[in-house]
């Protein structure tokens, strides 16, 4: 197999890349196995938790995403406001820079060796040709374009300087959609980066990563665990790790995925689904909860509860009888490294095994 970036080898990594290589990717380390039936248990937990909502929601599945779950559990008023759709107009420059960043990182992988500015400009032109709101911003003139390009160049550079080159043996995928059904719920997730693939021997090798331009917050760990839950339901096997990575400081959330963390994510889905159905069917009024999210809420100027700076995050509200918790499991057992060629286990590109490739 041809290695990326002119025969890349581990000793050529910068100190920051080496830290990600060793501590987050843990290339060459043993991968744990998953107990059989875990995905089915999680799916049943969600289905049972919302089964009594079926009469109130008879017309097909309830679609939930990372954003809708976080929104309804933070402030139900903001959730309802967002259900009305995004405000009309051009894409805000920070959002546009994020769109460009993700595409440019993909281009840097598929077409290595070119200047960052070339990736960013190609990604921006592609977005302008595909998205009317992005095009409206892009057509606003060179000042708006400069804000988008400069922001994206900074973020893409931060990624390339922080991450080792992504070897083809790791099966990297960018913004791959994951979807799974559990009872009347249909979950959707789209991590920025996925490495590894499901293994038929039950070994957990997949790594899910979402990229953020700013500092990490508590809810980012919950987002990463939701990605892990959707991946588990989709493939029948949990990922090895799932994390949110900050391009600002090179830190990441706790990447460990366990039966308990997946069960907690499933309970959050149930709480969000119950609240969403109750609000959409107008069976109760929305609870207004101030917080930092008020700054991004379209109803904030007229909201009686809005408070700049926000207050403590409220506990999720979900009416109805309490749901039994998922029984605690023992940690996933560790598996011994496989000496055979393995395209899914993130082999070290510096080793002869990686040089031979997957086949």
Major sheet: arrangement of strands: 2-5-6-7
Largest sheet: 4 strands, mixed
User: C-alpha Rg, in Å?
Assistant: 22 Å
Question: What is the count of β-strands?
Answer: 7
Strand-pairing-aware structural class: alpha/beta
Mean pLDDT: 85
| Pattern of helices and strands | HHHEHHHHHHEEEEEHEHH
Quick gist of this model?
With 359 residues, the protein is of the alpha/beta class. It has 12 helices and 7 strands. It has helices spanning 4-7, 15-24, 38-50, 66-74, 76-83, 93-110, 116-130, 132-138, 142-162, 218-235, 259-280, 352-356, and strands spanning 62-65, 173-174, 178-182, 185-189, 193-195, 207-212, 241-246.
Task: Outline the structure in words.
Residues 311-330 have a biased composition (Pro residues). InterPro entries: PDDEXK_AddAB-type (IPR038726). One of its GO terms (molecular function) is helicase activity. It contains twelve helices and seven strands. It has 359 residues and is an alpha/beta fold. It has a domain at 38-86 and 169-302: Lambda Exonuclease, Chain A (Alpha-Beta Complex). Helix 10 links the parallel strand 6 (207-212) and strand 7. Helix 4 (66-74) crosses helix 11 and helix 6 packs across helix 7. The protein is globular and about 55 Å long.
Any descriptors?
359 residues, Lambda Exonuclease, Chain A, 4-stranded mixed beta sheet, 3-stranded mixed beta sheet, globular, helicase, PDDEXK_AddAB-type, DNA repair, nucleotide-binding
